Amino acid sequence: MAAEALKAERGTETEELFVGARLILKALEEQGVEVVFGYPGGAVLPIYDELFKQNSIRHVLVRHEQGAVHAAEGYARSTGKVGCVLVTSGPGATNAVTGLTDALMDSIPLVCLTGQVPTHLIGNDAFQEADTVGITRPCTKHNYLVRDVNQLAKVIHEAFYVARSGRPGPVVVDLPKDVCMAMGTYTTAPRGINRQQHKTYRPKTKPDSSAVAAAVALMAGAKRPLFYTGGGVINSGPKASALLRELVRLTGFPITSTLMGLGAYPASGDKWLGMLGMHGTYEANLAMHGCDVMINIGARFDDRITGNLKFFSPDSKKIHVDIDASSINKNVIVDIPVIGDCAAVLEEMIALWKAKRYEADQKALKAWLRQIAQWQGRDCLHYEQHGKIIKPQYAIQRLYELTKKRETYITTEVGQHQMWAAQFYRFEQPNHWLTSGGLGTMGYGLPAAVGVQMAHPDALVVDIAGEASIMMNIQELSTAVQYRLPVKVFIINNQYMGMVRQWQELLHGSRYSESYSEALPDFVKLAEAFGCVGMRVQDPAEMDDTIKEMISIKRPVVCDVVVDQKENCFPMIPSGKAHNEMILGTSEKTGKAITGEGLALV
Amino acid sequence: MAKKTASARGKTPAKPGAKAPAKRAVKAPEAQSSNLYEGMIPVARLKDKDTYRHVVSLLVDNEAGVLARVIGMIAGRGYNIESLTVAEVDRERQLSRINIATSGTHQIIEQVKAQLGRLVPVHVVRDLTDDGPSVARELALVKVAGVGDKRVEALRIGDIFRANVVDSSTQSFVFEVVGNTDKVDAFIELMKPLGLVEVSRTGVAAIARGAAGIDKK
Predict the structure, then answer these.
(1) Which of A361, A387, A522, B131 is the most exposed place for a label (fewest CB within 10 A)?
(2) Edge-to-edge strands of the sheet including A293-297?
(3) What confidence tens digit (pLDDT) does each residue in A104-144 have?
């Protein structure tokens, strides 16, 4: 609609009209967006034109739309803000789907703006048309197709509200080109009390106090208690982590965490048992199996955590704190559900614990901690570095030792290196560990590192990668170079898709079907071709110097760490088994450990 | 069963007094008195492996794609839909009501409700089977073809079920039968030997008894 016609229709001269693309950017500015990760194309050209004309929002040009979404995830997870993505219609949107699904599984707040063909062409199989709203419906928290330019600003504000509220997640806003080019009026975001007045979506954040009271009373009577915390604590914000630390100190209960929750409680804390789950520590998993009161805070009883549900923590009463009611009683039936934001719940728990002057049963707790210490004595992460071949664990452990005193963010790809990173890199702070937990997306780490480095230009950002995973989004090295982002890609190179090879060894008679990485590139030359610095280390004696050099270079670096090809990731709960049936190393009869139903599980 | 429903139907309009519904409205929260707090469901109930049929009603924004969202979530998570009805119920507020007849264990039903509840355009989720008494009705158009005794018998049974004949030819009837699902099932079963040709059913529309509306507790 022409501007004048619209003005005439509304009969007001005061309402200023803007072109749709400008309205979008105004809304993003109002939402506090500083960086957009994106890739242009025909359907979003009007938006890119407006981006060109302004200076308040920076745009990071990625090399593949999947990379844009992962970069926005990295940005969001390391800052606690909503990440923002801008991609074009058709292939731009479909390429973003993996990233969106990843963000949905890991509850990462994103707003992804996708271009769309003009409204009159929708449904006509137009060039670069895809049913983006249809395709992304199951892989987003919510999505919108904007058909009216006057709704643009309102919808974008709402998208940000939905993305960050309750259990966070990705939201897609599909923007037909004609809507972006039409003239319309701007709507400011609801403020103050109205902010919470979304007509339908008002997630509950404050818990029911009687539920908290029941939970705290159960905790106070526990003999063998255990905190089992997850990504919900991280998503809730730094306050939740601080409160968690206080509650652990107050109660004296031991604590373990999922992959997603690492850093909420410091790895140096005296009650820390390490990560739990399929590749978690012996002590954490046995404590889960043997506890009598389990306090789940912001975790979702994922199958990587529980192992065989039939034998999962058989003797415990379970408390489950979650902001999402649908997570409760989904996989594991719990005794006391507490629906609310982790920080709000923890705050009430602490207040109540103090007010009621509760105290843990010291005698029982001591015996329990003694039992746990005995399990810890097994030293389940033990490995031996000798000879001329670098053990992957050693590489990561040295990386940790040489970077722990800095502000360091670690991202990973997916596979063995990811699990070793989780086991051997010790996180002291929330928001410093970024990995694809739920979806398990190879290719996550490098673009995520780009997003982190954009948000934290002076921090050290290391992508602990595998040589197979890194190839999935290697093109983002080019992005890092363009924006002078000194990310470090630390490739644990065993020339195998290590986790696939490990499962083939354990489950499929060592028939390594298609898991050997043949025709690998020379990563040093590849790095140089991209304009990065390439390094390679093969000798354990040179490990430290290589890492130090890598850190000292203020440019993107690819460090190819040539490691033992045969090393497997242990401990491991074989699929279909219970926590107390974990295997600790190849010396045991691992080949026979996975049988029957377990073979069919993932 | 069918008779009981039919008589209940007859009574409701005859006694529109406020007393009976009010009594029921008080009763409903009592049924939930085992709920110590929100979200608390007894473990024994969740561990019950028997399946139950529930009718769940939703009030949703009447916007493009909302039905796809609901159906997609249910299909994507592998839940069962026995019937589903949807229609706009409030034009001014642009609200539609979706009634889903589903079956599953208590645990599954709770999951279905929780998953529906977190869809952004959903205003309200009510379990009409659990949250107090409700009435449910379904309409079916049933085509029966036949001549002679069978034709007479079909008409006679139609009468017993208070079915209306809405179309007739010399060799066929179309019956309109209204009632709860069991009644409609029973009628269709009886029509089978009498020349049942085809059936078109609306699925369940349901509403809670008493004065309270779906969006007010």
Answers:
(1) A387
(2) A272-275, A255-257, A225-229, A293-297, A317-322, A336-339
(3) 999 999 999 999 999 999 999 999 999 999 999 999 999 99
CA A441 – CA A104 distance, rounded (Å) = 12
* HSE, side-chain direction, 13 A CA sphere, residue A254: 31
For residue A441, what are its two tokens? 């997306």
**pLDDT for res B19:** 38
A·B CB contacts under 8 A: 71
A313-345 pLDDT, tens digit each:
999 999 999 999 999 999 999 999 999 999 999
What is the value of pTM for the model shown? 0.92
Mean pLDDT of A395-424: 98
Q: How far apart are CA B68 and CA B70, in angstroms?
A: 5
How far apart are the C-alpha atoms of A471 and A580, rounded to whole Å? 36
Among candidates B43, B64, B68 on the partner chain, residue whose Cβ is nearest the Cβ of A333: B43
pLDDT digits (tens, 9 = 90+) for A462-498: 999 999 999 999 999 999 999 999 999 999 999 999 9
Furthest-apart CA pair in chain B: how many Å?
Answer: 62
Task: In whole angstroms, give the CA distance from residue A283 to residue A280.
Answer: 9
DSSP state, residue A208? P
- Number of Cβ within 10 Å of residue B169's Cβ equals 8
Dump the DSSP string for B117-173.
HTSTTEEEEEETTTSS-EEEEEEEEEEEE--THHHHHHHHHHHHTTPEEEEE-SSEE
Q: Which two tokens stand for residue A343?
A: 């920080």
A138–B61 C-beta distance less than 8 A = no
Cβ contact, residue pair B118, A325, below 8 Å: yes
Domains and CATH numbers, chain B: 34-131 (3.30.70.260), 135-206 (3.30.70.1150)
Smallest CA–CA distance from A321 into chain B, residue:
B39
Chain B residues whose beta carbon lies within 8 Å of the beta carbon of residue A335: 43
Pairwise CA distance, residues B127 & B206, whole Å: 10
Instruction: Determine the length of chain A.
Output: 602
Catalytic residue among A154, A177, A271, A577: A177
Question: If you write DSSP's letter for every residue of A343-360 in order, what string do you get?
Answer: HHHHHHHHHHHHHTT---
Distance CA B106, CA A448 (A): 41
Strand partners for A464: A412, A490
Question: Cβ contact (<8 Å) for B118 and A167?
Answer: yes
Minimal C-alpha gap between B10 and chain A (Å) = 37
Helix, coil or strand: residue A280: coil
Q: Are A180 and A23 in contact (CB under 8 A)?
A: no
Choosing among B38, B45, B49, B63, which should be mutated to test the A contact, i.e. which has the most A CBs within 10 A? B38
* Residue reference for tokens 């707003």: A111
Closest by Cβ to A339, choosing from B38, B68, B69 = B38
- Residue among A290, A329, A316, A330 nearest A219 (CA): A316
pLDDT of A600: 76
Dihedral angle of Cα B109, B111, B117, B121, to the nearest 10 degrees: -90
pLDDT band at A190 (very low <50, low <70, confident <90, very high): confident
DSSP three-state, residue A63? coil
